[in-house]
Design goal:
Number of strands: 5
Radius of gyration: 25 Å
Strand order of the largest sheet: 2-1-3-5-4
Structural class: mainly alpha
Order of helices and strands: HHHHHHHHHHHHHHHHHHHEHEHEHEE
Distance between the termini: 105 Å
Largest sheet: 5 strands, mixed
Shape: globular
Number of helices: 22
Strand content: under 5%
């Protein structure tokens, strides 16, 4: 009589996998309904003080009604917003709901992307964590292009997985597979014109194909991408007379030591090394873990220890999966190129969560898969530690929502009651009120310069403003002529703080420095027209 096989003892992680086995549809629905519900509870009706979210709307309006091609940032998002504005007008809430729809679509595509490659429990953990993250949900009610880009990115990753990884043993035949090459190149093109960092997706694809000895695919995708990009630039040049390429337009700024002080010169090799190290500490050591509520809000420089730990885990996973899985090899290459490019390109001065939030879900998925591999192969007895880490992340994320929702629902109720300025501090209120006053009281042909033209556009009710982003020269004549040549008739100078919650934070003094140089060389050319506020006042000057 044959003895029965010994019973295999499962660790807790494997037991969780058994429990969630066959519950993929439930996970999918939860990952859609949770962000919808939380997205509405955390909905942000006002624009951010960063200004980029409102400038997208401004550029979209100018694209549709003034035939101005949206430059500097990726043009695709303003072009899409322009279509919405053409149909429904400048409806801020509707434009924000478009971001929520993009985020929900991204959730569904992300689920479809990883459902074949993550264990049932890890798939559940991934989708729940990104569904509940207040940091990610914020972009579901913001007119930054992060939600839109995440939608495009997840669509590209899913298409690439389906076309070039799922059927990896199928022999490539250009005559039969040229559609796959063209669609892949088109999606890469859309990523590139949505954000400059989207160009890294092409680099990742080429590296992956070279790693897998598919140089023909790499060559064909590069050629197809180049043809599409060349055609786009040809149309752009012919129709809008835009001669400067998108990457060179913004790339020149990224090469500077300080984007707001061009006189400090360009970055050198040592500076780039320092920039990479600082960005890695900030974005991995703080922002990545902070997305899931695990870091103190004020530690923006980040923890080198956390950064080293996460980078070490990623590197370990990359070497483990290099030959084991074509899918995880591609995700690893894509994630590594994305973060590496970001750390090199961005000045440490910016240090904004939104600049890496678009890559957080794929890095999290990679690390979760590594946890599962270690807990079921090499470190089975430590499975409970991995489960505890995931549980802590979920609890911290949930706690942050519970502490944020009450205040945010008050903001929503105030906005619906008609208080459009609720949530802004006094300095910003004065600035926005000045933009509205200028629009209502100056002649319609007045052209007003200010530091945050996108916000002025939104809160003035749709008047176009001229942006003073930096002081490009110390020559007063050059500065004066620049404004006059642009047709500027008035300038708003406000006392808006970099951190509205800190009375001692520095004032954004770009306009003040600009006007002080002009006033010293041309006294009497600036005439005070109006003032709003005694503390943190905003001033309107006529430029004569």
């Amino acid at each position: 009589m044959t003895a029965p096989p010994p019973e295999i003892k499962l660790n807790n992680l494997q037991k969780f996998d058994q429990y969630f086995e066959g519950k993929e549809n439930l996970i999918c629905w939860m990952s859609m309904l949770l962000p919808l519900l939380l997205g509405l509870l955390l909905f942000e009706p006002k624009v951010s003080i960063g200004g980029d979210d409102s400038i997208y709307i401004n550029r979209a309006f100018n694209f549709i009604y003034n035939n101005k091609f949206p430059t500097f940032q990726g043009p695709l998002y303003p072009m899409v917003l322009g279509v919405i504005i053409y149909v429904f007008g400048v409806n801020l809430i509707l434009l924000k709901f478009f971001s929520l729809l993009c985020l929900l679509a991204h959730q569904w595509l992300t689920f479809q992307l990883f459902r074949r490659y993550l264990s049932p429990f890890m798939l559940f953990a991934l989708m729940i964590l990104i569904s509940m993250s207040a940091a990610i949900l914020y972009y579901g009610s913001a007119t930054y292009n992060e939600s839109f880009y995440m939608l495009l990115q997840s669509a590209f990753l899913l298409y690439f997985e389906k076309s070039f990884i799922r059927n990896k043993d199928k022999k490539f035949d250009l005559k039969k597979d040229y559609i796959k090459i063209l669609v892949c190149a088109l999606l890469l093109f859309l990523l590139a014109i949505a954000k400059n960092v989207g160009l890294m997706a092409m680099i990742a694809v080429v590296i992956y194909f070279l790693f897998t000895n598919s140089w023909k695919k790499a060559a064909f995708v590069v050629v197809a991408f180049a043809i599409i990009m060349f055609s786009f630039n040809l149309i752009k040049t012919s129709v809008w007379d835009i001669k400067e390429a998108q990457i060179s337009n913004q790339g020149s700024t990224l090469m500077l030591k300080n984007p707001y002080r061009p006189d400090q010169g360009k970055e050198d090799f040592k500076g780039f090394v320092t920039r990479f190290k600082s960005n890695c500490n900030a974005y991995i050591g703080f922002h990545f873990v902070n997305v899931f509520g695990l870091s103190a809000k004020d530690n923006y420089k980040g923890s080198p220890a956390i950064a080293i730990l996460v980078c070490a885990l990623f590197t370990l996973g990359f070497f483990i999966f290099f030959k084991k899985s074509k899918f995880w090899l591609f995700i690893g290459v894509f994630t590594g190129v994305a973060y590496g490019t970001t750390f090199l390109a961005l000045q440490a001065y910016w240090n904004q969560e939104r600049l890496i939030i678009i890559f957080v879900p794929i890095l999290l998925a990679f690390i979760l898969h590594l946890f599962h591999h270690l807990a079921t192969h090499r470190l089975q007895k430590y499975a409970n530690i991995f489960i505890a880490v995931i549980a802590i992340m979920g609890a911290a994320t949930l706690f942050r929502n519970f502490t944020t929702i009450p205040a945010q629902t008050k903001v929503i109720s105030k906005y619906l009651a008609g208080d459009k300025y609720y949530g802004f501090n006094e300095d910003w209120v004065h600035y926005l009120e000045m933009a509205k006053w200028a629009k209502d009281n100056l002649p319609t042909d007045a052209y007003i310069a200010c530091r945050k033209p996108g916000m002025a556009f939104i809160y003035s009710g749709g008047k176009d403003f001229y942006g003073i982003w930096k002081v490009p020269s110390q020559d007063p004549k050059e500065l004066y002529d620049k404004l006059k040549d642009a047709g500027v008739t008035h300038v708003i100078m406000a006392n808006i703080r970099t951190n509205p919650d800190d009375p001692n934070s520095r004032i954004i003094n770009t306009v003040r420095r600009y006007l002080s140089l002009v006033n010293k060389a041309y006294p009497g050319k600036l005439k005070l027209v109006h003032q709003i506020g005694d503390q943190w006042p905003a001033y309107l000057y006529e430029l004569q």
